[in-house]
Specification:
The protein is α/β, with parallel strands linked by helices. The protein folds into two domains: 12-129, Beta-Lactamase (2-Layer Sandwich); 139-305, P-loop containing nucleotide triphosphate hydrolases (Rossmann fold, 3-Layer(aba) Sandwich). Helix content is 30%, strand content 28%. The protein contains eleven helices and 13 strands. Strand 1 (43-47) and strand 2 (51-56) form a beta hairpin. Helix 8 (215-224) runs parallel beside helix 9 and helix 9 (239-250) packs parallel to helix 11. The N and C termini lie far apart (72 Å).
Amino acid sequence: MQIIEVKRQRSLSDELPSFLLSALPYRLVDEIRSRWNGERIEEIRLRRDRRASLTLPSGNCMLETVLDGATVDATLTGMCSGSLYAYSDTINQGYISLPGGVRVGVCGKASCEGDRLIGVREVTSLVIRIPHRARAVGAPIRRLLHEFDYGRGVLIYSPPGVGKTTLLRGVISQLASGEGGYSPIRTAVVDTRGELSFSNGGRELCLDVLSGYPRALGIEIATRTLSAQVIVCDEIGDYTEAMALVSSHNCGVPLIASTHASSVDELLRRTGIMLLHEARVFGAYVGISRAAGMDFHYDVHLRDELEI
């Protein structure tokens, strides 16, 4: 008897979480389903009175669906379970965090008191970032930390959209699981926006997650009360956070973090990063790049070899 194995074709439900499919307007979901060619969907962008679009590894795909302001507002409210107030703190920072590591960038007309943003009205765009379970990545970062004998950290940098968060997730898994013949490391993740811990839910991981904490506070807690051997966070850069990072470094806890920059020269022109450089918080600055669907390329700059 001949047995023929038929590989099931992936559906849109395999690509996007069910709660997101329910929250998006029906006609938008129908168009995405009809036009989707199986590529990884990285972002879905909804724009007030403009065409929606998909961000794919191959580029931007403009859709025909145009959503009016009421529909965009209703979509955001639905994502917030009917209560914008419950999400107001993060909306004022430009995003909301949803289950499964989904992050939605929110922009519109700002309401301000002096220099302080107190609200966003007439939402003009929603940028929905879709996390994906990536195969193992980050081994070079893991090796660098080992070479530094866990005495200094690593700062990963790149322009937006290259995959810093994806890489950090892989590094977290490598550290907390002991992949590659290493022993598991007590890893504390300061997951301010609820993105880093996605796909790192294995029971075997030596992992503690501070979800939703401001970075400076989360780093302080991870250092002083969790006895972390390494701390991981994303998108550092301002001066207040830099002071917290210097404090954790002085307590002997290395940090792996990410930030936006196109080059190491641009990176070290930033005041907060320069403070960390002078305090010798990072042993290496690692620029990353990759072509669509390809492996990461690492451009490693050892701290002690840089001329400032």
